[in-house]
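Q: What would this chain look like folded?
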Amino acid sequence: MDLITTTSDLAAACDRLSKHPVITVDTEFLRETTYYPLLCVVQMASADEAVVIDTLAEGIDLKPFFELMGNEAVLKVFHAARQDIEIVWHQSGTIPHPIFDTQVAAMVLGYGDSIAYDALVERITGHRPDKTHRFTDWSRRPLTSDQMHYAVSDVTHLRDVFAALDADLKKRGRNEWVSEEMEVLTSPKTYDFHPERAWERLKTRVRKPKELAVLMEVAAWREQEAQSRDVPRSRVMKDDAVGDIATHAPTSLERLANLRSLPKGFDRSKWGSDIVAAVQRGIARDPATLPKLEKPRGNSNGAAIVELLKVLLRMTSERHAVASKVIATVDDLEQIAADDKADVAALHGWRRELFGEAALSLKHGRLALAIEKGRVVRVDRDTAV
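A: My prediction, written as structure tokens:
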């Protein structure tokens, strides 16, 4: 197979692929040392052919590829599409659409939470993909014949996986379930990483408005620094250090030097004064302009309710052969335990029909859980004697 290295060959290949209703797509990239992923290779396949594109080839213009990604007449099939879409969005401002994510479809069909591509291929086709080049350096040139074969096999096996999952979805009437997830994946908001929202990514728990304000400012500074230097966030500052600064709010270099989560001498670096300035901006923010902090659960039985909801979720997952992760998260369950009208996915659409209504019934005693012949079963208390 020839490697596509010129714009004219790329345009011709994309024109051929655009005549098919469905194509499969995968990318190879590096992001270990950069903030933005470095796109190295793109592979695509139709029912007739498979192509491999050297996206690092000198002088190549990827515009034909980006136009194909936005072609509404062609369904683009990915596995675990989020990072692929993020790359296309960052480089072109285009969100691939319409798309089909085989990982999401597999979750909806009961293949487990976030099943890996090779495992899904093996379960559906019986073929065991070669994993040799999964972690290869795709930026090195020239690409070897083995790398080319690996790249092609990714998208050719994906054709068979898509066909099987699509048929199963239609048989079970679950196409709309996947469509809802695809709308989230293809929303620009999903990839909108403004520095002002960087704090939302952190798992750090803050309890006071001042801590939240400092967290927001320091996280925004780190995000801007990582973007401008094109390095991973952790290269600028670790997550635990951001949380530590938010909690202690050091307003001087001396106080900053006392934080154990920062490398020794960090306060004397060119970033020390930037951090102190960010802390001071946070302290100066008007608390009324801050997002509301989640209040502690007022219900002393909240933890017990969440545990019961977990049991119900597992039962629902097993009964309907749907991965529990795609129905509800632990955070969803915690919010449902605290608020009947919580704005969580589990209380909307097909998830509410499948699980949400039962979750609310369990919470309010209209439904109970019991053990019958060694199995946990649901009991409708409206009809129980």
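The first helix runs from residue 7 to 17.
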